[in-house]
Amino acid sequence: MIRFNCDYNEGTHPAILERLSKTNMEQIPGYGEDHYCRQAADLIRAKCQAPQAAVHFLVGGTQTNLTVIASALKPYQCVLSADSGHINVHETGAIEATGHRIIPLPAIDGKISAAQVQQVCDAHYADDNPEFAAQPKMVYVSFPTEYGTLYTKQELQELHEVCQKNNLFLFVDGARLGYALTAKKNTVSLPELASLCDVFYIGGTKVGALFGEAVVILNPALQADFRYYIKQRGAMLAKGWLLGLQFLTLFEDDLYLNIARRANEFAARIKKAFQKAGFPLLYNSPTNQQFPILPNELVKKLEGKYVIAHFGHPDAEHTVIRVCTSWATTEENVAALEKDIASL
C-alpha cells in the first residue's frame, strides 16, 4: 500500500538521521541547555529577524498547544478558535483539561476573521456581568489551516490589530508552517509572521523532523518562566539536544523550506490530476493537503492501492478524502497516483 493519508508516515529526513548518527556518542547536557539548542534558537531568531524572541523546543503539536495556552492564560480566561481548529476538534479536550475554555467561531475555509473576534469581545464586555463568563484573552489560528488554506498578510494584520485593540494574545499554530511559507499563493514571510503575532511555533514533526516543534515567543509578557510551564506540562525532553539538533539541520541551507516546497509541488500535481479527471475539491488548498470529492465506489477503488484519509460525506453517494504529501513523497508514487486518478 502507498500512503498518502498524512505527512508524518516516514521517520525523518536523511540529513537529520545522518547528523543524529554522527553525534550519537557525544555527551551533551540535557533539558535543552546545550549548544545545539542554542545554535538552533539563534538561527531561528535570525530567520525570523526577531533577536528578542525566546525559542523553546517541544516534542509534539498538542503538547505545544496546551503548554503555550496554559502559560498565557489566567484561570478565568479563554481562547478563541475556528470551529475546525486543531485544539477544538483533534486534541481530546487537552485545552479544556488545562482549565481553559475554547470559544469556537464559525470558520470559512478554516479561517476566522478580525470582525468575528471583535464581535466576541463586544458581546462579552456589553454584558451587565462580564465576569460571569470566561474572559477572551487569546486568539488561536493555524497557518496553514486544517484544510490547507492560507491567511493572507492582510488577514493576519487585521487579526493582529484587533488583538492589540482588545488586549488579546495572537497565537499561530505552525504545525505545517513550512508548507504555508512555500505555497505559491502565500503572501506572508517568516519575519512578517513573527511581527504579527505574540507567539507561534514552527512545526517539525510534519515537515521532515523525527519529532519536534520550535516555539517562538515574541511578546516579553509570555517569555518569563516559560520553562517552568514546559516542565510542569510534561513537555521538557531530557535529551533535549535531539530537538535542537534537528531544527539546526532543518534551518541550515533552507532545508526546511526546500522540502516543504517540494511537497507542495507534488500536491499541486495531484490536485491538477483530480481536476482534470472532473472531480471537484472541497477546499482550494495551495499547500500539501488536497481534499477531492469522489463517488464512494471510486474511493474504494483507490483504497485498493492507497491509504487515504476520509474527511466526511457531502451526501450519501460521495466522500471527501484527504491526499497528503510530505518531504518523503516520491516522484514514482505521485506518477502512479496521477495515472490511477486518470483511470477512475
What does this structure look like?
The mean pLDDT is 97. The protein contains 15 helices and 13 strands. A hairpin with a 7-residue loop joins β12 and β13. The strands form three sheets. It has a seven-stranded mixed β-sheet with strand order 2-8-7-6-5-3-4, with helices on both faces. Strands 9, 10, 12 and 13 form a four-stranded antiparallel β-sheet that branches. A two-stranded parallel ribbon has the order 1-11. It is 42% helix and 16% strand. The protein is of the alpha/beta class and 344 residues long. The two termini are 18 Å apart. α6 packs parallel to α7.
Helix proportion: 40-55%
What value does the average pLDDT take? 97
Protein structure class: alpha/beta
Give the helix tally: 15
Q: What distance separates the N and C termini?
A: 18 Å
What summary fits the major beta sheet? Answer: 7 strands, mixed
Radius of gyration based on Cα positions: 20 Å
What is the strand arrangement across the widest sheet? 2-8-7-6-5-3-4
Which segments are poorly predicted (pLDDT under 50) over 5 or more consecutive residues? Answer: none
Number of strands: 13
Instruction: Provide the succession of SSEs.
Output: EHHEHEHHEHEHEHHEEHHHHEEHEEEH
Outline:
globular
